[in-house]
Write a structure and sequence with these properties.
Strand content: 5-15%
Number of helices: 18
Shape: globular
Strand order of the largest sheet: 4-6-7-3-5
Helix content: 40-55%
Radius of gyration: 22 Å
Distance between the termini: 43 Å
Order of helices and strands: HHHHHHHHEHHEHHEEHEEEHHHHH
Length: 402
């Protein structure tokens, strides 16, 4: 779980990352790693870590070249929302999630009473992060964090995470030999970073330690505590599939644009099932695959999923997964059959053209992120195309022609 940086590294995600990663130019490490470790140990003691804990952790403070390779080669999900969500939510993930909610019904009820987060939301995150506690990751946390803390890219960030990992050990929550997770230092059933483990981990089973590896109660309650802390609003919806009329003002479809539900209804937006939320609740219209693909109203609680993981296709999938666990039907895929996706090379070409024509995408990296989508929308408006933010071969052709 991560608030700012995005590390696509959990066991569940690894299963769908079949496409080659885009290697990014990186800095070069200088200086002796051994000398760095010696200085780190002194600094850790100065920050309140006992000499005993530092000595116990010292054999684990090693350099792992494979972690650097993974950090340098992070890929981007170029699959569409439907393809991505189908892969992540393939059987038996949904039925298993429903079974988990039944199995732990009394626990979920206590957690919801305490934090206001419903079972389906916690279960969706649990399922995607670790397959309900089955896939924690195979990397040792301390060597991974030591490697990234020494590395030149984001050393200060990971140095702080490494100190917090030692704090987790010092306060008795975990033993060194239990701390295995992903290459970026996240571990446990919810793939918490050490800093979030310290901030949001709770002892919900009352045994005197916050165990987010073996204790289901601590794991689920800690996730709820985190979600509440970053803005979850009790009793409010988060995502709902809707049917949008062809006459829609597509430029209004943007996560950063909100209108009351009553306004969306006036524009002809209808629920795909059930009823829309209360009329005065603000909502954004999001189109993960453009106007021809599935459409959703994203309510304020949806941004909590974005805060959990900033990758739009992942956070949308997580929120959609939670609606499915809550009884919503599968999304309508009929219109999406006509959706054409640009490949990485085409997206890179489009980004270069957008930059050249003043739309300020930034680095042309072939990744379809929020900045590229916003630039695409501006270009679509210029070329009198439906401004749904989805890059199409037609837009690419027209920009090349100009």
């Amino acid at each position: 779980m991560r608030k700012t940086a995005l590390f696509l590294a959990s066991g569940v995600l690894a299963a769908v990352m079949a496409s080659p990663a885009l290697a990014a130019p990186r800095c070069q490490n200088t200086g002796s790693f051994d000398k760095w470790v010696e200085q780190f140990k002194k600094d850790a003691v100065a920050q309140g870590i006992s000499a005993k804990v530092v000595a116990a952790a010292a054999p684990e403070l090693t350099f792992d070249e494979s972690v650097i390779k993974r950090d340098s080669g992070q890929g981007v999900f170029q699959r569409t929302f439907i393809d991505f969500s189908k892969r992540l939510l393939a059987n038996p993930r949904i039925p298993n999630g429903m079974n988990k909610m039944k199995e732990h019904a009394s626990l979920f009820a206590r957690i919801e009473q305490t934090y206001g987060v419903p079972p389906e939301v916690i279960t969706a995150v649990w399922g995607l992060e670790s397959d309900y506690g089955q896939l924690f990751g195979k990397f040792k946390i301390l060597p991974s964090l030591a490697t990234l803390a020494y590395d030149c890219r984001r050393g200060e960030h990971f140095r702080a995470e490494l100190v917090d990992a030692l704090r987790v050990i010092q306060r008795g929550d975990q033993r060194i030999d239990e701390m295995n997770g992903n290459w970026a230092g996240e571990f446990g059933g919810m793939q918490f970073t050490p800093s979030n483990y310290i901030k949001y981990g709770v002892d919900f089973d009352g045994d005197g330690r916050r165990d987010l590896i073996k204790s289901t109660a601590d794991t689920l309650a800690s996730a709820a505590n985190y979600l509440k802390s970053i803005g979850w609003k009790r009793g409010e919806p988060w995502l709902q599939e809707v049917i949008v009329p062809a006459s829609m003002q597509w430029q209004e479809a943007d996560l950063d644009i909100q209108h009351p539900v009553s306004q969306w209804a006036k524009w002809g937006v209808k629920p795909a099932s059930g009823t829309l939320a209360k009329a005065d609740l603000p909502a954004s219209l999001i189109l993960p695959m453009g106007r021809k693909g599935p459409a959703f109203l994203a309510y304020p609680n949806f941004k909590v999923f974005i805060d959990w993981n900033s990758a739009f296709v992942y956070s949308t999938t997580a929120a959609y997964f939670a609606t499915r666990l809550g009884g919503a039907p599968p999304v309508d895929e009929e219109g999406a059959k006509d959706v054409v996706s640009l490949n990485t090379e085409q997206v890179t070409t489009l980004q270069n053209l957008l930059n050249q024509q003043g739309y300020a995408v930034g680095e042309a990296d072939g990744k379809l992120g929020g900045g590229t989508r916003k630039a695409v929308k501006k270009a679509q408006i210029k070329y009198n195309m439906p401004a749904d933010g989805w890059p199409t071969p037609e837009l690419l052709t027209r920009m090349q022609g100009s």
